[in-house]
Amino acid sequence: METTRIVMDGTRLTCSEVARAARGDVTIVMSPEGTERARAAWRVAREVAAEQPVYGRTTGVGANREVDVEWEDSDAHGLRLLRSHAAGAGPLVAPEIVRAMLAVRLNQLAAGGSGVDPGVLTALADVLNLGLLPPVPVYGAIGTGDLTALASTALCLLGERAWLAAPDGTQPRGPGFRLRSADALAFISSNAATLGESALAVTDLRTLLAASTGVAALSLLAVRGSEEPYAPAVHDACPHPGQREVATAMRTLLAFEQPAPMRIQDPYGYRAFPQVHGPALEAAAYAEEVVGREINAASENPLVDVAGRAVWHNGNFHTAYAGLALDAARAALFQTMALSAARLGTLAEPSFTGLYPFQAATEASSGIMILEYVTHSALADVRRLATPAALGSAVLSRGVEEHAGFSTQSARATTEALGAYRIGLGCELVAAVRALRMQGRAPAGGPLRSVYDLSAEALDPRVDDRPLDADIAVAADLLPGIARLLPAAPPPVP
Fold it and tell me: Which of 77, 196, 234, 275 has the highest CB neighbour count under 10 A?
């Protein structure tokens, strides 16, 4: 049972909770333990900075790391840093990504490695609970720190930049917080925006991959396919965890059926479904594990070590793990979407469905013909977006920051790829339900019958030639509900 409160303590935030904080009506609560960790780190950071140089607190940043900040200039240094770095460009990112960023940064600060003034935690929680949004442009980060996004947030807290207007056009007033100059870098040294979008993406990925199994089972039923490829002996012989999970799910969904297969073996879209969809499940599970670890990590540079009463200059801000995990997930997503497109092809074939070509009302009608075009258009985008973002790099700040993993771009590409995948899978769902209706058939029972009933109730039953754009949109919107109807399975072990 989900509660309406999410407690931020810096240690146990999940990707699904980030999604709820970004999209749902929840209250964000700071744990006393998280606040105390932040307060202890703040004290240690001040003590260490009084005794030795600390990057960003007593020095400049980037190539200016060797430049000491004069004592009389220290109050202005942090403000200059925020103003100079709040310079993103392009359209603003979606509000849910901004909220995810705020939730992740709040939780990271509670991990107690930043040394930032603990009053910031209360201010960020208030921002989330009041529904305020700082302006965050899409361009400005490359996976080594969301400096522009967080600097913009800091300027909003300082009152130098306005929060975004509410949907009704009113200009909200938010909780002001006078961020100390020495805390400026400590606040913005994070990949919270990248990780927030990543958390949303992996949550949606797990949902869509679960729904895919239900849709594939409906398609198998519609083409009178064989259950033989899902037999336990097949997957005991090649025991990949994800493959086994998919085969088990298919057997569960088809348990109420008594199929009489029409062919000695089916095309790859059915026969190789566990072997192709399984890697996508494993990639998604690994990506969720990586992102979950990152959103509960102290990723700041420098890192405040309270126990050792020290400050460590480091590279925890670099999110290569998250970017590479998402790159792999998109490659796997393309493979499983290609099988969905292949199954859609069989649903248009009379030899598989026993219907007119394209499930048309008459032999000369077009029926669902256009769904294949829509699917392959979406598939082409997923293929394009599957190019690994990690193949890029950059040398910045006069050569002292000589690498970038572009995990920010990987997260963005994953969000876009999932949007295209939803469309393609929605097309398959439209075709599978329509074929079963025209055949006068339906699943016999169990969760697959629930999936069919949910879909059949929402989808237009007419089979005359007409625009199918509304059908596709409805089917795409049904996918999260379909995922919830399916039996829960433990995540595969990567």
Answer: 196
Sole residue written with tokens 């670099």? 318
Task: Using DSSP, state whether 28 is helix, strand or coil.
Answer: strand
**Nearest Cα residue to 219 out of 345, 371, 334:** 345
Number of H helices, E strands in the chain: 18, 6
Structure tokens at 301: 């540079």
Q: Are strands 27-30 and 5-8 parallel, antiparallel or unpaired?
A: parallel
How large is the angle between the packed helices 147-158 and 192-222, nearest 10 degrees? 120
CB burial string 18-50: b at 16+ within 10 A, e below = bbbbbeeebebebbeebbebbbbbbebbbebbe
Give the 3-state DSSP-derived string for 402-426, with helices as H, strands as E and coil as C.
Answer: CCCCCHHHHHHHHHHHHHHHHHHHH
Question: In this structure, are strands 89-92 and 137-139 parallel, antiparallel, or unpaired?
Answer: antiparallel
Q: Determine contact, residues 119/177, Cβ cutoff 8 Å.
A: yes
Instruction: List Cβ neighbours of 322 (8 Å cut-off, separation of 6 or more).
Output: 191, 194, 195, 198, 287, 290, 291, 294, 407, 410, 411
Task: Report how far residue 270's alpha carbon sits from residue 340's, in angstroms, rounded to the nearest whole number.
Answer: 9
Q: Is residue 72 over pLDDT 50?
A: no
C-alpha 317: how far from chain center: 19
pLDDT tens digits, 1-36: 567 899 999 999 999 999 999 999 999 999 999 999
Q: How far apart are CA 45 and CA 113, in angstroms?
A: 9
DSSP string covering 242-264: HHHHHHHHHHHHTTT-----SSS
494 DSSP 8-state letter = -
CA–CA separation, 133 vs 102, rounded Å? Answer: 9
Average of per-residue pLDDT values in the chain: 92
Residue 123 pLDDT: 95
- Residue 388: what pLDDT? 93
Q: Is 375 exposed, middle or buried (0-12, 13-18, 19+ CB in 10 A)?
A: buried
User: How many degrees, rounded to 5, is the angle at CA 280 between CA 275 and CA 285?
Assistant: 125
CA distance 7 to 51: 36
What average pLDDT does range 340-368 have in this prediction?
A: 97
Name, in order, each residue with C-beta under 8 angstroms of 266's C-beta and a sequence gap of 6 or more.
220, 223, 225, 226, 229
pLDDT average, residue stretch 343-370: 97
Confidence check: pLDDT of 432 > 80: yes
Note if the bond before 302 is cis, omega within 30 degrees: yes
Report the amino acid identity of residue 120.
V
